């Protein structure tokens, strides 16, 4: 995965180098720390409930002809969404560049989102999710 830098305020993960300002919480670069172990390996115990599952659809039901969908759920076995144990956020990157964060509240939501990329976008989608008890996990898929 290369060098990883983590924002000490919001947990955002930056690839390669720390940004001047966090794209999520706007904290300055000095709030980032390099952490090679920021993302749990996909083979680690508990992966069934933590490694995101991604499905890329080259069409879109909401905006036909204008986008391609990336459907994301956390875990091949659904992750719990309780006040005590939940997925707090899901971040999406295209070619290692941050594009969106989805904040999740356990009382109302499942650990799943859909992202609508423009049809001309290409490359690798990286999804990073954060569990309040078990840390940060990631997966990649081709758009």
Description:
This protein has 143 residues and is mostly beta strands. The chain folds into two domains: 1-38, Rubrerythrin, domain 2; 40-142, Sandwich (Immunoglobulin-like), CATH 2.60.40.730. The chain has one helix and ten strands; from the N terminus they run βββαβββββββ. The strands form three sheets. It has a four-stranded antiparallel beta sheet with strand order 7-6-9-10, with no helix packed on it. A three-stranded antiparallel beta sheet has the order 2-1-3, with no helix packed on it. The chain has a three-stranded antiparallel beta sheet with strand order 4-5-8, with no helix packed on it. A hairpin with a 3-residue loop joins β9 and β10. The protein starts with a strand and ends with a strand. 28% of the residues are buried.
Percent range of helical residues: under 10%
The oligomeric state of the chains shown is single chain
Q: Please, how many helices?
A: 1
SSE pattern, N- to C-terminal? EEEHEEEEEEE
Strand order, main sheet: write it out.
7-6-9-10
Mean pLDDT: 94
Looking at the overall shape, the CATH architecture of the largest domain is: Sandwich
CATH topology of the largest domain: Immunoglobulin-like
Total number of distinct structural domains: 2
Largest sheet: 4 strands, antiparallel
Radius of gyration: 15 Å
Name the CATH superfamily classification of the largest domain. Answer: SOR catalytic domain
Poorly predicted parts: none
Q: What proportion of the residues form beta strands (DSSP E)?
A: 35-45%
Name the CATH class of the largest domain: Mainly Beta
Alpha-beta classification = mainly beta
Query: Would you report the number of β strands?
Result: 10
* Shape assignment: globular
Alpha carbon gap, first and last residue: 18 Å
